[in-house]
Amino acid sequence: MSQQITRLGLVSALREEQSGLIEAMQDTQTVTRGMRDYVTGKLWGIDTVCVLSRIGKVAAAATVATLIERFNVSHIVFTGVAGAVESDVQVGDIVVADSLAQYDMDATPLFPRYEVPLLGQSHFGSDKHLTDRLTEAANQFLSGDLENAIPSQDRDTFRLASPRVFRGLIASGDEFIDSQARQLALKEAFPSLLAVEMEGAAVAQVCFEFGVPFSVIRTISDGANEASAHDFMQFIDSVASRYAFGIVKRMCGMGDCLPEV
C-alpha cells in the first residue's frame, strides 16, 4: 500500500516553471543549501519544500539528495518542460513519466549501453500511486481549468487547441536536443520514448537509491528539433508555469493524494 505523504518535495529546473507555487505557500521559511533556496511551508494543506534544481542531471541529483537527507521529504514531484520525440505528442501536451532513462549513459564495454553501472538497470519506474494522481490532476486541469489559466491570445500563439495527457517513457541527458537527426536517433534507441529533457532520470535514480517515491511531469514546449529554441522562454512563462501551478493545485486538492499507510 502506498506510503502517506508526510512532506512533499516539489522541484523545477527554472524559476518560471515554479511561478506562483512558492507565493501560494503559507508559513514559509527559507533555508539555503548548496546555492539553492529551499522554501518550506504548507501548500494547499500539504507540508511542502519547494526548490529550483537548476538545469542538468548533476544539479537535479544534488537537489533531490538534499531534499531527502536534509529536509526528510517523503515524496518528490518534478515539474517542468520537455521536447517531444513521439510524433503524436505536440506542443502544449503533457507527458507524465511511467519510467525514465538516461540516454547519454554509456559505460560500454564494461556495462550494457544505457545501464547505470552497479545498479543493473537502465529504466527507473515512477511511483504508481503518485503518478496516477498526477495524471488525473493533469486531465482535470486541461478539461476544467485551461481556458481560465491560459489567455486566448497565448492559446492561439502556441496552438493549444486540444492539449492531451500522455503517459510513458521520458529520457534525460545533459544536452538540449534541437536536431531532427538527433531526435530520430533517440527514438530508434528507445522506440517507446515520448519526450526528452535534462533532469528527470537523475531524479529517478536518486529516488530509487534512497527508496523515495517520485513522479515527473513535463509540459511539451517544443519538438526537439531545429525550431526548439523559438519562443522557448515565452512558452515557459505564458504556458508551462501556469500548467504546473494548476496541476499541482489539483493534485494537492485530491483527498486520495494522501493515502493511508
Automatic annotation (TrEMBL):
Broadest EC class assigned to this enzyme: hydrolase
Transmembrane parts of this sequence: none
GO BP terms, alphabetized: L-methionine salvage from methylthioadenosine; L-methionine salvage from S-adenosylmethionine; nucleoside catabolic process
Nucleoside phosphorylase domain segment(s): 8-250
Protein name: adenosylhomocysteine nucleosidase
EC assignment: 3.2.2.9
GO molecular function: adenosylhomocysteine nucleosidase activity; methylthioadenosine nucleosidase activity
Keyword set, alphabetical order: Amino-acid biosynthesis, Hydrolase, Methionine biosynthesis
Annotated GO CC locations: cytosol
Organism expressing this protein natively: Noviherbaspirillum denitrificans
Pathway it works in: Amino-acid biosynthesis; L-methionine biosynthesis via salvage pathway; S-methyl-5-thio-alpha-D-ribose 1-phosphate from S-methyl-5'-thioadenosine (hydrolase route): step 1/2
Family matches, as InterPro entries: MTA_SAH_Nsdase, Nucleoside_phosphorylase_d, Nucleoside_phosphorylase_sf
Classification via Gene3D superfamilies: Nucleoside phosphorylase domain
